[in-house]
What we know:
The complex is a heterodimer. Chain A has helices spanning 2-22, 26-50, 57-80. By secondary structure, chain A is mainly alpha-helical. Chain A starts with a helix and ends in a 13-residue tail after the last helix. Chain B has one domain (2-96). Chain B starts with a helix and ends in a 13-residue tail after the last helix. Chains A and B meet through α1, α2 and α3 of A and α1, α2 and α3 of B.
Amino acid sequence: MFVAAAAAILIALALVVFRAIMGPTVFDRVLAGNSVGMLAILLLAVMGFLNGRPEFLDIGLTYGLLNLIGTLAVLKFFRHGDLAYDIEEKRDS
Amino acid sequence: MDIAVDIASGALILIGSLFIVVGGIGFIRLPDVYTRIHGASVIDTAGAGFLILGMMLQAGFSLVTVKLLFILAVFLFTLPVVAHALAQAARHEGIEPLLSEDRTKRGVSGGDPDQGGRP
């Protein structure tokens, strides 16, 4: 079962990495990068269960939190062109 | 009882794997950014949810279950934030969502899915 889950995650990783390389806009690449992070967490958990050592889950938790920060930082950079934009800037969306 | 829990966790893990592969295919097949967010959502809610539920059944009552629950909570809290920020940033950048008129004009099967939603 865990072997099948690991194989499925690897297939999905290959497809998502293909989209990250081919993506026409930068937002496709950001979304694919976020999904690569999520799939890596799942792969860590599944590999931990496969090896009988579920202690890898701590690494997965840390990676999940870092993934959110990284994705939001990249999105903010592409929206404002700067990570420290002026707070008075007009926020039209 | 033990066998029942094993069968249930195996079924949940297989369903989660199926949803993960479906989300990966959606990344390739869906036509523009806004619809690809849906593919990412399938991976991160249905796929990860079923997979982690199956692993929780496999782990039993222990600290591992609590950690898996935290990972699931992180997934369920961060994915909407990322999807919302991504859609807002793409809209701000001026990428128009693909409408159904464009799709019929292009032809359903003849469209090029790699043009970022531009016909």
